[in-house]
Structures are given as structure tokens and as C-alpha cells.
Design a protein that fits this description.
Length: about 220
């Protein structure tokens, strides 16, 4: 290991926000609240959860290039009308007033949830896994393996037709953002958690959820 590599700062959680638009209350484009991100050297992650035809590509204040992470997961029992998809931008540029927007070409007023998370001092998503968990009190992500210090992010997207719920991560993860108390018009429930790990290993996350429902799950390691 070179001296420069040894002295490089470890990845760490940066700024993060969560936009939740209720059904019939949404606008297009959907724009996240502004936050201050690092000028360079970050990895950014967003999700677009809602109507499948609101599938516009994300655009952000600093012109970063967004790529899909994995494939969309379609919500069960909604007739293929809703899905959730992830995007990542590496070699990210940032600064004050940083927002991400998505144009809603299909259902401009429709429900949509859009978390935006920064991981600083990072360059890549080393590993990720996605799975769709059947209804249970505790649902589990698939496993990922990392070969050194990393910032882990986990995302829970419940599929229950409920408006008030809890989703609590385990396995050393901490909840950082959530949209779990939905408006009367409904919305897309979601929760975001993170964990910092200092060594190589294999990791997953269990979510305890009430009321019971299935969920689309992501876990990723950013280095």
C-alpha cells in the first residue's frame, strides 16, 4: 500500500434528504430539498419509487452522470403500476444548494418518493444486492461482501396498503431518513439506514416492520 493510499480518508456518510410526495399532491419535476454536498470525491445514491411510468432520468444541480444500479423491482399486487429503481453517480461533484430532480411524464401529480444520499471520500459501489421479501414481521436483505472499510447503505420499500407504520433496521444499522407516516391521500413508504464498517466481511440487514408487509430491499457497500 502506498503512503497516499494509507493516508486517504475512509468513506463516510455525508448529506442526505428524503422527498415524499403524496398521491394527488405531487408536482413535476419532483425536486429534493437542497443540501450542501462535498465539492468532489463523493458517491451519490438516489431512488425513484412510485408510478412505473414516472421513469424520467435523474438530473442534479451539478451535472453528475447517473447510472442505474441493478434493475427495477415491481411492487407486488399493484398490477405492475408501481416500481422502485436505484441510481448512482460516482466521481460526484457537489456544493451548496444541491438538489436532484425527476420529471414525471406519466403521472405528474402521482405519489413518488426520492431519497438522496451522499457518501464522501468514496469512488465506487463495491458491492450491492437487491431482493423482494415476502410478507413477514422481519424481512432480510441479501448478503454483500466487502474487502475493507466501507459505508453501507440499506433501503426498505414496503408494499403494504397502509399509511402508518414502523420499519426498524437491525445488524448495527441506524435509520437516517424515512417516510413512514403517509398523508391521507397515500404515498410510497420508504426508509434509509446506514452502517460504517472498518474491516472486510459479509453483511446484511434485517428490518422489523409493523404492520407486516412485503418489501423491495437494497443493500450496498460504498468505498
Amino acid at each position: 500500500m502506498t503512503s497516499a493510499a494509507a493516508d486517504a480518508p475512509a468513506p463516510s456518510l455525508g448529506a442526505h434528504v428524503f422527498l415524499g410526495q403524496g398521491e394527488g399532491l405531487g408536482v413535476s419535476p419532483a425536486v429534493t430539498p437542497a443540501m450542501e454536498t462535498q465539492a468532489n470525491g463523493s458517491v451519490f445514491v438516489i431512488f425513484n419509487a412510485g408510478y412505473s411510468n414516472n421513469d424520467g432520468s435523474p438530473v442534479d444541480t451539478y451535472g453528475n452522470r447517473w447510472k442505474p444500479l441493478g434493475h427495477p423491482l415491481v411492487y407486488a399486487d399493484y398490477g405492475d403500476r408501481f416500481d422502485v429503481r436505484a441510481y448512482v453517480a460516482t466521481a460526484g461533484k457537489g456544493g451548496p444548494g444541491h438538489t436532484v430532480s425527476i420529471t414525471k411524464r406519466g403521472e405528474p401529480k402521482g405519489e413518488l418518493s426520492l431519497p438522496f444520499v451522499e457518501v464522501r471520500n468514496a469512488s465506487r459501489v463495491q458491492a450491492f444486492a437487491q431482493n423482494y421479501a415476502e410478507q413477514a414481521l422481519v424481512v432480510a436483505s441479501d448478503e454483500i461482501t466487502v474487502d475493507g472499510p466501507a459505508t453501507l447503505l440499506a433501503f426498505w420499500w414496503g408494499d403494504g396498503g397502509v399509511k402508518r407504520m414502523t420499519a426498524t433496521p437491525g445488524d448495527g444499522f441506524q435509520l437516517i431518513d424515512a417516510f413512514l407516516q403517509l398523508p391521507d391521500e397515500s404515498g410510497v413508504q420508504g426508509a434509509v439506514a446506514w452502517r460504517q464498517v472498518d474491516a472486510a466481511g459479509t453483511y446484511r440487514v434485517h428490518w422489523t416492520v409493523a404492520p407486516v408487509q412485503g418489501a423491495a430491499l437494497w443493500i450496498m457497500a460504498i468505498r
